[in-house]
Amino acid sequence: MSKVYINKHPLVQHKISILRDKNTGTNEFRSLVGEIAMLMGYEALNDLPTEEVEVETPLEKCMTEMISGRKIAIVPILRAGLGMVDGILQLVPASKVGHIGLYRNEETHTPVEYYCKLPSPIEERIIVVTDPMLATGGSAIDAISQIKKHGGKKIKFMCIIAAPEGLKALEEAHPDVQIYVGHLDRQLNSDAYICPGLGDAGDRIFGTK
Ligand code: PRP
Ligand code: URA
Question: What region holds the Phosphoribosyltransferase domain (predicted)?
């Protein structure tokens, strides 16, 4: 089964609580999504391979560690996943960024694809898929299937809020994917919204409705 990492860090939990507040405005919401992504990215990338390189300090030469080999691709699920990209780019500025466009059909709650552009070649990259919300899991499952079709192998999925239903579905569909969750919420409602959740993440990041 997938490895699931549920975040417990007080800073992440504090920022998620502000996101949940319906009175938090677009500006602050957007900044917080980026900050949370950076804090979660710090954890999610803690297994990046490193190699010893020689560096000359002002005092002497030494062998020291730097990130090696495999490059990173960040792949946001449009739109809301875009809000998490800059936070991870601050950690790894050399990352490439792909995009997968999906939206949920409001009646069936199933994802509808409209765009896919990934860095090539993708096979050797560590791929971090971002979406603040994992509700039914349909969008994440679909996005990861598309990435695999293009040859993606080492995939991590990062979300800020997950519903138990979506987490289970994603684990079953893609057992090889590492899943990073900012907070595991109670359940979905009859409209497939996460409760207590934070509402519509895309609308709150971009100020639409
Ligand atoms: C939201 C969210 C996820 C998806 C989660 O996007 O950002 O992509 O719903 O739901 P699921 O797990 O049931 O698939 P939405 O479809 O509202 O599009 P948007 O990002 O353009 O607002
Ligand atoms: N998408 C969101 O933005 N929020 C939810 O609660 C569910 C899907």
Answer: 7-208
